[in-house]
Design goal:
The chain is α+β, with helices and mostly antiparallel strands and 215 residues long. The chain contains seven helices and five strands. A five-stranded mixed sheet has the order 1-2-5-4-3.
């Protein structure tokens, strides 16, 4: 009887260990897809990784944090000469655009701020306006063509809001302005990576970040 209980415990440990290895493998493959194949969405990257590995997408799925950790490792190992350069380039473009958009108190967010931007990642800026049309008019007055989109951001469990997004090009980079209302507390939405309030950087903070960068 004791031997059967011991065998059962060993089998359970083995299943947990196997599940952990599968999670790690899905995270590794998903990170490679994000780094090399322009897959920007964590859920899509994990689903495609699971399909490539021939496992169920409903089990052994890593958290987004695990995938991003693998992405950092991948970039450090395979893109050490190139990724820091394009990251710095995207940050410089972000700074130039933020200086232009000073009336809307712009902040940098997303993968360009976190340091995990892939080659074709958009520069995501959060701006604040009494009405989205003010941003559109500002861009038009400066001869900047834009396209309008929308995104849903999450502020907490069950608290979501659809916000307008203006997209345009700047120095060969794609810029994405998410327009937040300027009539209340400037609460950051939750990050898709870890669920915590999304990091934001002001012009001064981005200037310091660039000054500290070797690139």
């Amino acid at each position: 009887m004791a031997r059967r209980r011991k065998a059962g415990r060993s089998s359970a440990v083995e299943r947990v260990a196997h599940g952990g290895r599968l999670r790690a493998e899905v995270a590794r493959v998903a990170a490679g897809l994000m780094a090399e194949e322009s897959v920007h969405d964590f859920a899509e990257a994990k689903a495609r990784a699971a399909d490539r590995l021939g496992i169920s997408a409903r089990g052994s799925m890593p958290r987004n944090e695990e995938v991003e950790a693998e992405l950092r490792a991948y970039q450090a190992l395979f893109q050490a000469d190139t990724q820091p350069q394009w990251l710095a380039g995207k940050r410089r473009v972000a700074l130039a655009v933020m200086r232009l958009l000073t009336p809307f108190d712009p902040c940098l967010s997303g993968s360009v701020l976190r340091g995990t931007a892939v080659a074709d990642a958009e520069v995501t800026l959060h701006v604040f306006a009494d009405a989205p049309e003010l941003v559109a008019r500002f861009l038009v007055d400066r001869g900047i063509p834009w396209s309008l989109d929308a995104t849903v951001v999450r502020f907490g469990p069950g608290v979501e809001e659809e916000l307008p997004v203006y997209r345009f090009g700047a120095d060969d980079e794609n810029v994405r302005l998410v327009v937040f209302p300027d009539d209340g507390p400037r609460i950051a939405p939750r990050s898709p990576v870890d669920g915590r309030p999304m990091a934001r950087a002001s012009v001064d903070e981005l200037e310091r970040l660039l000054a500290e960068s070797p690139h």
